[in-house]
Task: structure prediction
Amino acid sequence: MRRCLAVLAVACVGCSAPDPAPPSAGTDPACTVGLDVDTSGWAAVVEQDFAFRLPPGFAEDSVRGIDSYVRQWSDAAGAVLTFDYGWYSSTLDEFRGNAQASDCHLEVGGRSAYLAMARGFPGDPRTESGWVVGITWRDVRQGDMATHLTMFGSAPDSAGAASLLAAMRTTVFQIEQ
Result:
């Protein structure tokens, strides 16, 4: 899988993902964390309808979606980034009940998005000692059933969370609204 990502990076030398979008009004940490991360040298992940940049050191994991298209990457430090593209992709409601969560609505890739972060989810051993971050775009592809894109990540520390948020903010869409 590492070779596939390297080939993708080489094949996408001419591809571009934008610099992170500016935060929406307000100073909520979810809107500002990761804005200072330089993503210019990161490898591009290009899908049919969207593209984004992936931090160095991430390798693709083998995952299988149930009712949507899912891919996942992780690094040696324990950070994980997953996307879910489908009809039933998460709305990230799990952040709304977390007292330690921070969230905001902003524009990323020319589309309205909901972005959230939290210092772990109590009771979830995968995330309770680290950071969790997520972003979702609703109705990316219109039709009888709209298709949504959600990216979710976890990191053992705030620097890892900032990198994941920066990666999410590099998302661009390759389909008309």
